[in-house]
């Protein structure tokens, strides 16, 4: 057969493969699992930019919620390497937390597969969401002194940046709302390569670590300062995407600034071990640990009635 035939065949197969990959990236398996099991109280558009898709958020409200409440609030950002991900990932956590009296917000942010966006743009969305919560506290029925932020993997990276209060675009008006606690599940943090630890990494860990090292300018760890909120970190010691020594180094950096840190390492667990779709036992353990951490700090439960509501 001719060279032209084989070239055309290879191009056709490459095109089919690329389109199949794009369809796979758009497939929301978390939504398929959780939409019927854990329906939100409402779905809102929290940000609309001209010429871009609207960013939505799932909002879970506790029983007997009223707009005049002052409830604790928990924000959880999904993971997915800033490229993919589902706003439904933390729906099982949200359902448990609202039963404990919290308003839970699961927000979308820009990701590369849908928005051709960068990590920096995802970070900007994280800060923008906090501004929106600050402006909408009355209609959300939340207490701004009890807003906690967390996330998994790349979502943990966004939450960690928010906790520093250091906006990625440099000096500007100080952030009005800083979280009362930080909740991190296998977070992407501590990007520079530690050559000593690197020698013991698996090939997959080395590949992932080299990728994160290229984003060192966007690492939240150098921006940790005194006054940083108490932090919970859950991580598996067999994580191939964020090696366990990375989060240990991050926890040490927090402690060096006199931050209270609870670090729980799950033996033998890999990345995303806490998802209900991966292990119901590890989900239950992670969820219970998170709830206990918040309850110990009086960051769950209801509060007093306040002003009339506005709109979110």
Question: What would your notes on this structure say?
Answer:
The chain is globular, with a radius of gyration of 20 Å. Helices cover 38% and strands 17% of the residues. The chain has 312 residues and is of the alpha/beta class. An eight-stranded mixed sheet has the order 1-2-4-3-5-6-7-8, with helices on both faces. Helix 3 (91-99) links the parallel strand 3 (71-77) and strand 4. Helix 5 packs across helix 7 (154-164).
Defining traits:
11 helices, alpha/beta, disordered C terminus, 312 residues
How would you concisely characterize the structure shown here?
This protein is of the alpha/beta class. 38% of the residues lie in helices and 17% in strands.
Counting DSSP E segments of at least 2 residues, the number of strands comes to 8
CATH topology: Rossmann fold
Radius of gyration: 20 Å
Uncertain runs are 14-26, 304-312
Number of helices: 11
Name the CATH architecture: 3-Layer(aba) Sandwich
State which percent range the strand residues make up: 15-25%
Q: How much is the average pLDDT?
A: 90
One letter per element, helices H and strands E, the order comes to HHEEEHEHHHEHEHHEHEH
> What can be said about the biggest beta sheet?
8 strands, mixed
Number of domains: 1
């Amino acid at each position: 057969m001719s060279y032209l035939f084989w070239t055309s065949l290879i191009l056709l197969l490459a095109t089919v493969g690329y389109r199949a990959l794009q369809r796979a990236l758009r497939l929301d398996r978390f939504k398929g699992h959780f939409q019927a099991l854990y329906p939100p109280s409402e779905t809102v558009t929290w940000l609309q930019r001209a010429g871009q898709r609207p960013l939505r958020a799932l909002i879970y409200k506790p029983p007997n919620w009223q707009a005049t409440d002052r409830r604790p609030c928990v924000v959880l950002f999904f993971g997915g390497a800033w490229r993919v991900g589902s706003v439904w990932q933390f729906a099982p956590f949200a359902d448990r937390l609202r039963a404990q009296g919290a308003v839970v917000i699961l927000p979308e942010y820009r990701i590369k597969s849908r928005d051709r966006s960068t990590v920096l743009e995802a970070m900007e969305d994280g800060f923008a969401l906090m501004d929106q919560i600050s402006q909408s506290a009355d209609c959300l029925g939340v207490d701004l002194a009890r807003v906690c932020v967390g996330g998994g993997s790349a979502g943990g990276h966004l939450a960690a940046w928010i906790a520093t209060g250091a906006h990625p675009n440099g000096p500007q008006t100080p952030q009005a709302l800083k979280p009362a606690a930080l909740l991190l599940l296998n977070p992407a943090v501590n990007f520079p390569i530690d050559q000593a630890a690197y020698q013991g990494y698996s090939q997959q860990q080395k590949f992932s670590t080299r990728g994160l090292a290229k984003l060192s300018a966007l690492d939240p760890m150098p921006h940790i300062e005194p006054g940083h909120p108490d932090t919970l970190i859950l991580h598996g010691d067999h994580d191939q995407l964020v090696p366990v020594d990375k989060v240990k180094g991050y926890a040490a950096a927090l402690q060096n600034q006199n931050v209270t840190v609870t670090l729980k390492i799950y033996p033998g667990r890999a990345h995303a071990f806490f998802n209900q779709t991966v292990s119901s036992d590890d989900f239950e353990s992670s969820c219970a640990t998170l709830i206990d951490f918040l309850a110990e700090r009086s960051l769950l439960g209801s509060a007093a009635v306040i002003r009339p509501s506005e709109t979110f």
